[in-house]
């Protein structure tokens, strides 16, 4: 029996990879060389491994690192498999040599592998080096007060932005983050404590629907997707159940909207249509209704750029990475850390340095150098932080930068993402959603303001929580026997003192 148990996990892993390989083979671009296909499949396989391990071990509340890895696998591995070897430069298509795509995939494989390995090892090391964790366990009687404070602050700030009382900038992201944090708190309590729903159910879905609709109104599809994605993550973390049907339906709708968002932007951003919010939603309905679903999902070439393959390729970063490889170092020298310089001055508040360069300068530097956009354009394209690491320090930069991210994310996971700390897990999820939303951008844009966001949210949470710090004795109970540190303790010690395990699906109920 022991031998079968030991063999069972590798067999299940191989079966899962075989299934992923079959799906990738069916979705592949017909002209893709075998080497490119297998390199893309290898990147996808390594990126799936952390999520598969999390689903089996159930060691933390929310699988944010695991989803970041999975997103990298989709952007790089699956992106190489499904799309042709072309890239648009100044509105003209340039054909890429497959060898540069292979180089980009190989570097991506090294980068993702180094991040995963360092994360696993650092999770154990951080437990020994940091004998405490953030314990923002929300007091049940103060949870609704915290949610209302977050919502009131967020909406009041957005009203101040609307009338021009405060300048638009990072404050806008912070205000949206406050509303998103309130939604995630509600989602955790909704799915984790089914006896404590009541009005919180309607408040949760009202806030999520509001954030989604406001995201659609802007024409930035990712702003509409992030609230839904975070609720999905919370549901997965609390119930450990993947709603396959709903997931497939959501992905299908996302592909359709992604294929027509340019039409929406053309009419609203540049055409002057959509004077009111209602008009903008009508335009979304019109451009989506104009999609021919039969042609959209056919295996023929994409009709007028609206096919599913073209829509999925918009999530891909591998061709931009290949474009970087084809130019650096032969035509464009390595940047030697130039795009990372904003890390030095980003922590300085703007009221102390009014002329501080904007953080998006790092993206513009790379976009303009590689001709991904025209001079003077306000658009941000981005090559992704893996390609950015290569553009700065060659292949060893990819390994080092990705390993550094694995080390940092392991620290955050160790300190915040614990099963008993609803507040810590909420902050962890919302701030790390910046990475899910910004995989195609520069590292400084993702990580530059992250420490400030953590400090602000912790200070806001603290008055509503039981305590700020939890000592190591209890932390080990939350990380029992999972490879991220901690020995397995008796079942009675693995739950917070004010809760008991509920039968089925691993829920807890406050008593």
**Strand proportion:** under 5%
Low-confidence stretches: 1-5, 301-306, 473-511
- Total strands: 6
Strand order of the largest sheet: 1-2
Structural class, from secondary structure content?
Answer: mainly alpha
Largest sheet report: 2 strands, antiparallel
Number of helices: 20
Order of helices and strands: HHHEEHEHHHHHHHHHHHHHHHEHEE
Q: How far apart are the termini? A: 39 Å
What fraction, in percent, of the residue positions are helical? 55-70%
The dominant shape is: globular
Measured on Cα atoms, how large is the radius of gyration?
23 Å
Mean of all residue-level pLDDT scores: 78
Structural description of this entry:
This protein is mainly α and 511 residues long. Strand 5 and strand 6 form a beta hairpin. Strands 1-2 form a two-stranded antiparallel sheet. The chain is 64% helix and 4% strand. The protein has 20 helices and six strands. It has helices at 2-27, 34-57, 64-82, 98-129, 143-163, 170-192, 199-218, 221-239, 244-270, 277-289, 293-296, 308-313, 318-327, 342-345, 361-369, 385-416, 422-437, 443-447, 450-461, 472-478; strands at residues 86-89, 92-95, 132-134, 469-471, 499-501, 508-510. Helix 4 (98-129) packs across helix 13, helix 6 (170-192) packs antiparallel against helix 7 and helix 6 (170-192) runs parallel beside helix 8 (221-239).
